[in-house]
Every structure is written in C-alpha cells, then in structure tokens.
Amino acid sequence: MMAKACSTDKLWDLATAEVQSRERSAGEDACAGAEAGGERTVFLMGSKAGGKTSILLRCLDRDEPAKPTLALEYTFGRRATGHNTPKDIAHLWELGGGTSLSDLVQIPITAASIGSLSVVLVLDLSAPAALWATMETLLQVAQAHVEQAASQARLVNKSRAGSKHSPSMAFAARVLPKDFPELASDKRKVVCKTLRFVAHYHAASLIFSSIKSESLMSKTKSFFSHLAFNVDTGRTLSCDSSKPLLIPAGSDSLSQIGSPPATDVDMTSLHAKNPKDLWKKVFERIFPPENTGEKKEVKDPAKDPQYAELQIDAMRAQKDQELEDYKKEAAKSWKGLQLDT
C-alpha cells in the first residue's frame, strides 16, 4: 500500500518514482527474460493521425475501428510456440499526439525493456513538410531515453556477481512510413532517398506501408511479427523509389543511397555540420518546414463518449458544480468587502 502523498507531491513525480522502483526490482529478471526471448516490447510513435493504431490493429488481426490514441496506450499480443509451452508475449505501446507528448517515451523505454525493445517510427508521407521535424524530435527523445535505460541496465548487470548475461544496447528505430507518397517523381525520390539515409544512419529497417494495400499490409504484418515474436521475415528487398520501399536493417549502404538529391543546390552554401545535417538542409530546402508546434488539444477527454464511466462522470459533475458554486460565493464575498483607502 502506498503512503498518502502530501499535497505538494505531483502525480507525475509519484509515477516516475514508481517506474524507477519497478525498474530496479525487475532489472535482473528483465535481462534473463530478454535472453530467453519470451517477452518483447514494441513501441510505436510518429506523426499525429499517421496510422499507427490502424497498422497495429491489422497486425494483431483485430477487426475493430481505430480510435484516436489518447496520450500513451498499452496492449499486448501472444503467440504460441509449441504444445504445452508458455506463449511468447509482446508488450505493445503506442504514443499519441505526434511530438507534443514525447516526454512519455520514458514509460515504455526502461531498463527492464531495453534488452528486447524495438522502436517503430511511423511517418505520414502525405505531409512531407512536417516529416523531418517529427522524425528528428521523436528520434532524439527516444535515443536519449534508450541511452539512459541502457546505462541503468548495465548497473544492474554489474550488481549481479559472475553474470554472463547482458541486454542488447543497440538502438534501432524502425522507420515505417504510412503511405506511398503521391508526389512528382523527383520529389518522391527525395523523400525515399532521405528516409533510406536516416534508416541506415540509425541501423534501422525501412518499410513503406498502407492499409489500403493487402500486399503491403502482408509485408508489414510479417515485419511486425519479427519485432514482436522474433519470427523470420526472409530477405525481401525493394530499393526502387518508384515503388514502395522495403529495406531490412543492414541491407543498404551509403554507396547505394548516393548523395542528397539536390542538383540545383550548392552543397557548400548549406554549411552543414555533418552528413545528417546536410541531408536535413537539402530536404528542408525542397520541402520547407511548416510550423511544427503541435496544436494544443482543446477537446476534453473527460467529455469524450468513448471514455464514459457512469459513476466517475457523475462524481465529476457533482464536484464541478460544487466548484462553480464556490466561485460564485467567493465573488460575492469579494464584492462586499470594504477595503481601507
């Protein structure tokens, strides 16, 4: 039982402390579990309304309509490996809100999950002007928490005398664009080459998907099964920018990708600090970034019918009314107060 918190404690601080406590207690078991391969974690993040939920539902063979993701949502998948053997479990997390809720990545990315974690970045190719900012922001935040979680996991390993187990520390964001871009061939080539570079830079796989295409969804489901249950996907490869891309991690190279496609741009005038910065500047020269500040969500989730809870909503309505009554009485008191001059 948790002791009653003082009034100055913040809910987020309590949640953070609880997560850290669970990490410390579960760290040793996590390392052994990751080695056995019985449990894996797949974390989806990306463009707001970019199709993450739809893709996840199709991969889980769940015939239900996709609903907007509220903050961070969790589900799981199970797969039988044999007769009378424990089922493999995939812990599935989905981050909503685009980049506006990026701080929540610390929930699925922990020392307990780092040994069997896959990060899937879903990008909406119908909005290339917002693509780089979304990709860069989320990858940076995820990278920082991966490094922090890996450091915590290493400390757990050091505390295990004579341990021979060590979780995988490699960070690989699986870039999974939602739909094949309906752009002019030259601009589509820019998008494809840029995503190939970013995926190769992060030692990640790159796969184009669309819920409108059964063929692409079949490949996406195979890819998902590999991440969630370590199922072999084969070595299918497609690098042609005129077709949907499918490039497993390690299958591409800088020589095959080539230089940034900017024939009308003087590369030296861009003053890039490194190769990644050069690709960014070229991409944003062709697709000028729009205002990427996420719009504040004005819709109150407490009033959304899909989250209705009769008893809780009734109590909330009662407390709201009590608050309004208090405000009115307080206003009357202030108006009747005579101040000395």
Note down, in words, how this protein is organized.
This protein has helices at 11-36, 52-59, 131-158, 185-201, 214-229, 254-257, 275-286, 310-335; strands at residues 39-46, 72-79, 88-95, 117-122, 173-175, 206-207, 246-247. The chain is of the alpha/beta class and 341 residues long. The strands form two sheets. Strands 2-3-1-4-5 form a five-stranded mixed sheet. Strands 6-7 form a two-stranded antiparallel ribbon. The protein is globular. Residues 1-8, 26-37 and 161-171 have low confidence and may be disordered.
Keyword list:
alpha/beta, 7 strands, 341 residues, single chain, disordered N terminus, two-stranded antiparallel sheet
